[in-house]
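Researcher: I'm preparing a figure for a lab meeting and need a structural model of a single chain. I don't have an experimental structure, so a prediction will have to do for now. The sequence is pasted below. Please return the structure as tokens so I can convert it later.
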Amino acid sequence: MHSAGVAILAYFLVELIFQAWPVALLQPAWLDKMIGFLVSRGITPLTGAILVAGASVLNPHSKQLASRATLLRRLASWVAMGYLLLIPVQIYSGVKLLQARKQESSQLIAQAASSVEAIRKATTPAELRRAYEQIPGNKPALPEQLPQPFPVIRERLAEGISANTKRAEYELGNKMSSLWQRSLGLALANTLRMLIFFLGFAAIGRRSPDHSTLLESLLVRNQRRFGKATQRGRGHHGDIIAKEWMDWEDDRPRS
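Model: Understood. Here is the structure written out token by token.
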């Protein structure tokens, strides 16, 4: 079990290194890629950690297995907290990527709109060609000899490009709305997976054999808080009736 667990963890670390290289911590695209990798492959290190920790339980007399299990359990606590911290990082990277995509598309639309204005203001075929070349994206080249009079070509180009620009702007709005909905669904699914991995590693992680696991510590704290809140609630209800009124009731002659 121990050897199999170590092999699984080593395999995951190799994949993690190749996936993370080159490191770009401040790039939303890199963060999004790494979050996807850690969420989709998180079961691999969890399985390896369970095997290594379980080996020391099955063979408690081996000091070597116990020391390695202790080290792994400490690391598991940090990994659990890492999966919890990935939740806000995922939201940050997702929002940044969507904003960058919208900004890039808006810049292309704005560039096309400025090209339309330049075409309308062109007074010579050379100015018309220069304005036409500023339009982003793939487009057919203008013929060397214009097939129609210059004013007619100018107006037709301006009207056609303006219509395409408005259609692209409308499609961009619909596309961004769809992307936001899909991103929210994916973020929710990944958040649930991260919480599951947090619970899994927290159930393994602990500082030393004398301490409880991270998950047990969290559960005990929640129980203590709940118990204190219940006691405070009981004390509050008990103070509704003043003590002297209760004493008067006790001193009242009974029939």
